[in-house]
Every structure is written in structure tokens, then in C-alpha cells.
Automatic annotation (TrEMBL):
This is Ribosomal RNA small subunit methyltransferase G. It comes from Brevundimonas mediterranea. Belongs to the methyltransferase superfamily. RNA methyltransferase RsmG family. GO terms for cellular component: cytosol. The gene is rsmG. It holds the Pfam family GidB. Its EC number is 2.1.1.170. Specifically methylates the N7 position of guanine in position 527 of 16S rRNA. S-adenosyl-L-methionine binds at residues 73, 78, 126-127, 139. Keywords: Cytoplasm, Methyltransferase, rRNA processing, S-adenosyl-L-methionine, Transferase.
Amino acid sequence: MLNAEKTLFQGKAGATPQQMADLEDFRIRLSKANSVMNLVGPDSLPDFWNRHAWDSAQLLTHAPVARTWADLGAGAGFPGVVLAILLKDAPDAHVWLIDSLGKRCRFLQEIVDVMDLPATVINGRAEEQTVKCDIVTARAVAPMERLLGYAQPYFQRGAQGLFLKGEKAESELIEARKSWHLDAELAPSQSDPRGRIVTVRSVRRARPKH
């Protein structure tokens, strides 16, 4: 079953044999690391190729010319590590993997080093970094209202946002618009019919109403 899902992923993502080898290596290393620290829900690992790999890779279909990405709250490496693997041979590609927890950053650094990925691991708060990128992204980090606060500095430096969200995406956007003026739209996720991808083109904090 795992091989069938792997083949399906390769076809959808257009991944090369080397990229598939790197992703398989990543899957194995993640499984081992997950047994000693909670990176992803253990029940989700058998569905690695769809729930994690394709969920991440689909972002490239929304921004095919983007080469520089910042993954806020990079955690286990979704979507950032997957993007770095798939962009490895693209000219000038780079992914910043930003996380505030040291042990997650050590895991991410090991992956980046072993696979020689075009990525930089940053152990720190997302909103305090000075990274300039084409796309700022995140998965399972915070509700949209708070996530936009983390991402605002990246928008101010010219980035657009592509955020992986679940079935509450629409209600999160409604709530976020109470605090932010934003140009945003929802698209269905290709990995889960309940999921949504939120594209944010611009954002600025709304003035409080008196």
C-alpha cells in the first residue's frame, strides 16, 4: 500500500528518482526521531506520502516560479523540508526553516546536512527574523489571526503567503479580518477534501475601532 501511495505521489509531484530517494530517507529519519520526540502524530506516519509529502508539495503548484520560501514553525519539516528537496536543483532556490524549539531545529539541521539541502535552519521566533523571500508559509502553527502577526514582517518585505489550513480555515479568516485588512482567498487542498490553502497577497493591521 505504501509503495502505491509513493508512486501516486511521484506522479502528482513530478519528482525525480533522486528526490524520491531523499523523501524516503526523510520519511525513515522522521519515523525514528518521532519515536523519541513528538514531531507529528504517530498515527499519521503510515499516510506520509499523501498527508505530509503531497500536502506540502502541492504548494509548488500555487507558486511555480517562487524560489525562496520561509516556513514558520517548521516543526517536523512540513512543508519546508519537502519544498527544499523538490527545489534542490532549481537555480537560486532556498528555504528558511524557522522554529522556536531547539530540539526540532536540531532534527531539521540533521536533515538539511545529510541531504545537502538548499535550506537554512533558524532557531528563533518567526516574527523576529529579517528573512526576505518570495513566499511565507506555515502548517498547523496558529489560527490565522495570530499567524498573520508572525508573518507580517515577511509581507512587509515583499512576500506573499501560502498557508496550509484545515476545515476551520474560513471561520479563521472571518475572525482574522476583525484585526487585519487582507487580500486573501481560499482554495481546496489536493491532499484532503476538508483542508484549504489560504493565499494572502497583502495584509496590514486594522486600526482599532473606538
